[in-house]
Write a structure and sequence with these properties.
The protein has 1 helix and 5 strands. With 68 residues, it is an alpha+beta fold.
Length: 68
């Protein structure tokens, strides 16, 4: 399902719908004064519970589910 369509130079770009999950790769979860690097995967491409937990334990990545 396509969430956004944009017209660029006469061509239509279809951007995929984003997932309700975000991961904080660098920086604290909303606490850093310098900002953070945040990634939001496409819908259906987010990792399962085990993968998210292992990323948190091994690398310190913080996955959070966003409300609507």
């Amino acid at each position: 399902m396509v969430e956004f369509t944009t017209n660029v130079s006469g061509k239509i770009l279809e951007l995929p719908e984003k997932s309700e999950w975000k991961v904080w790769l660098m920086g604290d979860y909303g606490k850093s004064q310098h900002g953070a690097i945040v990634y939001q995967p496409n819908k259906g491409m987010e990792p399962n519970w085990f993968h998210r937990k292992m990323q948190e334990l091994c690398f310190g990545f913080q996955w959070r589910k966003i409300d609507g």
